Amino acid sequence: MKLYDLELSGNCYKVRLFAALANIELEIVPVDFLGGEHKRPPLTELNPWGELPILVDGERVLRDSQAILVHLAGTYGGAAWWPAEAHLQAEIVQWLSTAANEIQHGPASARLVDKFGYAIDKAGTLAKAARILPLLDAHLAERDWLALSRPTIADCAVFPYVALAPEGGIELAPYPNILRWIERVKRLPGYLAMPGT
């Protein structure tokens, strides 16, 4: 399997993190993001969206980090990471949606402004973060993991941009349950760090 990757991308890191935790071997293919390699062939032939990550697994090509997590967990990770029961899958998927929406448009986008100079409404990103982080903290007050009372791809999907929130000027000190969860993730066997975490 090949993962077309950008080291500083939290979305790419989600995939690398899960693969490390589940002992899934990936060939990492660094992409010249600043040079626009992801915006032209042959990468646009794999992903017409012109975005990363991209996973190539035999004949299968996947272009979204959440979809890649589901594929890897369901195909190679076993029931511990992706259970067979639909109601348990749904408990995980709601967090994949949170990662792609509230976390992406809050802490992740704030980081894009501060770290990479993106022209995004910073006040809007902070408002979104100020809504989602207290909800996440309250959820983690009653449990160690986001779903199913154990580590799942839900944790892998949400972890990167929450742990990287300080790079967007968002302090995590007001959220002690999130901070404890971040430390639990970091203690998982096989944990793989990225710059900023």
Written account of the structure:
Helix 1 (10-21) packs parallel to helix 3 (65-77), helix 4 packs parallel to helix 6 (153-163) and helix 5 (122-140) crosses helix 7 (176-186). Helix content is 51%, strand content 8%. The mean pLDDT is 97. Strand 1 (2-5), helix 1 and strand 2 (27-30) form a beta-alpha-beta unit. The longest helix is centred in the middle third of the chain and has 31 residues, at 86-116. It is built from 7 helices and 4 strands, in the order βαβαββααααα. A 4-stranded mixed sheet has the order 2-1-3-4. With 197 residues, the chain is of the alpha+beta class. It has helices at residues 10-21, 43-46, 65-77, 86-116, 122-140, 153-163, 176-186, and strands spanning 2-5, 27-30, 54-57, 60-62. The protein is globular.
What is the number of strand segments? 4
Structural class based on helices, strands and sheet pairing = alpha+beta
- The termini sit apart by 25 Å
- Amount of helix: 40-55%
Largest sheet: 4 strands, mixed
Strand arrangement within the widest β-sheet reads 2-1-3-4
Oligomer: single chain
Low-confidence stretches: none
Q: Mean pLDDT score, rounded?
A: 97
Strand portion: 5-15%
Overall shape? globular
Pattern of helices and strands: EHEHEEHHHHH
Number of helices: 7
Radius of gyration: 16 Å
